[in-house]
Write a structure and sequence with these properties.
Elements (H helix, E strand, L loop, with lengths): L29 H10 L2 H5 L18 H18 L4 H10 L8 H11 L8 H12 L13 H9 L14 H9 L10 H24 L5 H4 L5 H11 L5 H31 L4 H6 L9 H19 L2 H23 L6 H6 L5 H13 L3 H12 L6
Length: about 400
Amino acid sequence: MVFPSAPYAQNAAASRGRRHDEPESRTRTPFARDRDRIIHTTAFRRLKEKTQVFVAHEGDHYRTRLTHSLEVAQIARSVAAALGLEADLAETIALAHDLGHPPFGHAGEDELDSAMQPFGGFDHNVQTFRVVTRLERRYPRWDGLNLTWETLEGIIKHNGPVTARLERPSWSAVAEFDRGYSLELGGWASAEAQVAALADDIAYNNHDVDDGLVAGMFTLADLMDVPLIGPILHGVKRDYPDLDPAILRMEAVRRMIGAMVDDVIAETTRRVAQTGVASADAVRALDHALVAFSRPMLEDLSALREFLMNRMYRHWRVNRTRSQARRILAEMFQLFMTEPDVLPADIYAALEGRDEASRARAVCDYIGGMTDRFAIEEHRRLFQLEAWT
């Protein structure tokens, strides 16, 4: 099916360009080129062994940051196409949105933020921005990926305006970049970026239900009275009374994704008619999001998240892993700061002459770029002599 282009879509031909001028691709739009640059990054490859909820070594069937990002990108592209938006841009922002996550998910982020409090803190959204504007070094004329203005805007403010955050020490890198190349941080991002943000919500709510069931943290019976997923499960059982539980689970998740996608499209279409937006810049000028869930869907999602919080995110197995993860990162950070000569030679050499804050940021970047597996192995090598035998 071919969907007509919406007047409020971001036109690739009208991109505001890149911070550093370079010839356009002969075969790709600017946003498709951004997507390809993100896919080829070291940071993107490392997502394959970074935690979503379960640490990567716990099993091959649970979502990682990589599989999560691919699911978000697929949903974002589908929703963007249905709304007549620029699908390449939505997909690109979705693929990039988790590049700055450290090992061990939110536990890792919390620990790095704690360790970095004297030096500006840590925020995974800012780290994603630093990855694509500074830390990935692949080109002879600039650091970072030199992404288009629209992609950078979407990466840093896909959840809405961020001006109020610029006063936080952890956002200093974004504030500094914006002073030299304004991303209009006080306004909303494109509709494509907003689609990527809600695709993230759709993906993680559904795959957390799926992974929680596979992990045995709750059962299908436990979900029967939970808003959104409960009525869907009843519907599947009504349609297929003797369905194998594994297929029942997958069919219910498939239908829940469909229900959430349909809701976003319907609510966004309503808001388009209400606001009369007729250009991408008009979307940015609104005082509220254009792409959104309906109020009933938000209420159902709130109840589902509460269930997942109680039965999964605070489960003793997850708590135990979170505790171990925080200790691993805390001990490595402290050791690298007090004995930097145990760092890899290239990183240690780059620390020469730096002040304490910049040395801490370099250590944080090194730890933040680790996969779960590498962090576990590096910690073992640092603190257990027999790991070398």
